[in-house]
Design goal:
34% strand; disordered N terminus; Elongation Factor Tu (Ef-tu), domain 3
Length: 394
C-alpha cells in the first residue's frame, strides 16, 4: 500500500516555509492548485497593515505566461482588446481578453520585459485558448508560473520598507513601471503594481531566492510594522478600491454553463480597454455591434445604507429583481458600506436609488433587511499616494 502524502494534494509556493511559520490561525485555501493562507492572525489587523503600514501577500500562485518571438506584439494585439504597442518596454498594462462573442474571458497585467518579450499574469489558466489564438503567429508561449516567485508589498510604508532593504531609487518609479535590482547574485524585478488600490509594489524573483527575499524584506520592514496578509484582507482592500475579481464579479466566458451568465467589457465598466482603432482582435465584431446597440447589463458601484454588507443580495426596484450583488464589504478606511452589482442597464445611471435585499444571520437567526442603496460613480478609496511620484517614504 502506497504512503499517503499531503504534497501530492496541493502545491506549495517558494515562500511556503515562511508563510506556514507565520500562519498562526492555520487557515488555508486553494489558488490555482497552490495552498494559500486565508489569514495569518486577524483579518482586520492585516487589512489595516495594508492601509496604515505595509502588508505582504504571497503572489506566487498567480498564473504567469511568458510570450516571446518575432510576432509577440502582433499576437498579443490579436489576443487582447487594448493596443499593446502603447505599452513600452519596462512598463505594465492592465489588459482584458474576450472570446469571439465579445464576452470576457479574464483580465490581467501585461509586463513588457524587452523587445518581443512579455509576461502575462492572470487569475485563470488559459493555455489552451492562448495556444489556439497563436495559430499563424511566430510566437512562443511558456507557462512559467512555477518558475517565478512573487510577493505583493502594499501600503503607505511599502516604499520605505523596500528602500531600507537596499532598493535605492525605488521612490522614483512611476505607477505601472518596472525597475530591476541585483539581489543575492540574481535579478530582482520590482513593478509598481498591486491589487489594493494603494501605494504598492510587486517583487519577482527566481524561486531558489524566495526565502532570502522574504527574510530580508521582513527584517528591513520591522520598524515599519510590516505584516504578512492573507486572501481575506486582500479581498477587502480590492473591494474598497473597486477592483474586479474573475470568478467573483464575472464568470470567465470559458467557464460558463448557462446562456447569459458571461459579461462583456462594456457590461463590466471596462469599455476604456477596448480599442476599435485596432483592425483585428478577438471579439471585435461582437463588441462593435454592442457599442452601437447597447448592453443588457451594467456593473455598478453601490453606496448601501447601514452597516450590513450586501454580499450575495438581490437588487430590487419595487418588487422586481433587477440585479445581483457580486462583491460587498463594510470598508473600514472609507467608512462606507460598499458593493458591486450587476444590474439591468436601464437602472445603472449614477444617482439611481435601488433596494438591496440583504439576509444575515446572528445566533442561528436569519434576518431580512431591505436597505436603500445609491449608484455611485466610483469606489470610495482612492488615495493620492497611489499615484504620487516620488513615492512617499513615511
Amino acid at each position: 500500500m502506497s504512503e499517503y502524502r499531503d504534497e501530492t494534494m496541493m502545491l506549495k509556493t517558494p515562500f511556503h516555509s515562511r508563510v506556514e511559520a507565520a500562519n498562526e490561525l492555520n487557515e488555508w485555501d486553494g489558488w490555482s492548485g497552490y495552498t494559500t493562507p486565508v489569514a495569518y492572525t486577524d483579518v482586520e489587523l492585516e487589512y489595516f497593515a495594508i492601509r496604515n503600514s505595509t502588508g505582504v501577500f504571497d503572489l506566487s500562485p498567480m498564473t504567469k505566461y511568458r510570450i516571446s518571438g518575432p510576432d509577440a506584439e502582433a499576437y498579443l494585439n490579436r489576443l487582447v482588446t487594448r493596443d499593446v504597442s502603447k505599452i513600452k518596454i519596462d512598463r505594465v498594462g492592465y489588459v482584458i481578453w474576450c472570446d469571439d462573442e465579445g464576452q470576457m474571458m479574464d483580465d490581467g497585467t501585461l509586463f513588457h520585459l524587452g523587445k518581443n518579450d512579455y509576461r502575462l499574469c492572470s487569475y485563470t489558466r488559459v493555455m489552451d485558448w492562448m495556444s489556439w489564438a497563436a495559430m499563424g503567429f511566430d510566437v512562443r508561449i511558456v507557462d512559467e508560473t512555477s518558475e517565478v516567485a512573487a510577493l505583493a508589498v502594499q501600503g503607505p510604508t511599502s516604499c520605505a520598507c523596500l528602500s531600507a532593504m537596499g532598493l535605492t531609487g525605488l521612490e522614483e518609479l512611476k505607477p505601472f513601471g518596472i525597475k530591476r535590482f541585483t539581489f543575492a547574485d540574481t535579478e530582482l524585478m520590482v513593478s509598481r503594481t498591486g491589487f489594493t488600490g494603494d501605494l504598492g509594489y510587486e517583487l519577482w524573483i527566481e524561486p531558489q531566492h524566495a526565502e532570502a527575499l522574504w527574510d530580508q524584506l521582513f527584517a528591513a520592514g520591522k520598524h515599519y510594522m510590516i505584516k504578512p496578509i492573507g486572501s481575506s484582507a486582500l479581498d477587502l482592500a480590492r473591494i474598497e478600491t473597486g477592483f474586479l475579481q474573475a470568478g467573483v464579479d464575472f464568470v470567465p466566458a470559458q467557464d460558463t454553463v448557462r446562456i447569459g451568465r458571461s459579461r462583456s467589457p462594456f457590461e463590466l465598466g471596462l469599455s476604456w480597454l477596448v480599442d476599435f482603432e485596432k483592425p483585428v482582435f478577438n471579439g471585435r465584431k461582437a463588441l462593435l455591434k454592442e457599442s452601437v446597440e447597447g448592453s443588457s447589463y451594467r456593473l455598478v458601484f453601490l453606496d448601501v445604507e447601514g452597516n450590513k454588507p450586501a454580499a450575495n443580495s438581490f437588487i430590487l426596484v419595487g418588487p422586481e429583481q433587477v440585479g445581483t450583488v457580486t462583491s460587498a464589504a463594510w470598508c473600514p478606511t472609507a467608512k462606507s458600506n460598499f458593493a458591486f452589482a450587476q444590474v439591468e442597464a436601464k437602472y445603472a445611471e449614477v444617482g439611481r436609488e435601488l433596494i438591496a435585499e440583504i439576509y444575515y444571520q446572528r445566533e442561528l437567526h436569519w434576518t431580512r433587511l431591505l436597505a436603500k442603496c445609491t449608484v455611485v460613480a466610483a469606489a470610495p478609496f482612492n488615495p493620492p499616494r497611489r499615484r504620487q511620484t516620488p513615492a512617499p517614504m513615511c
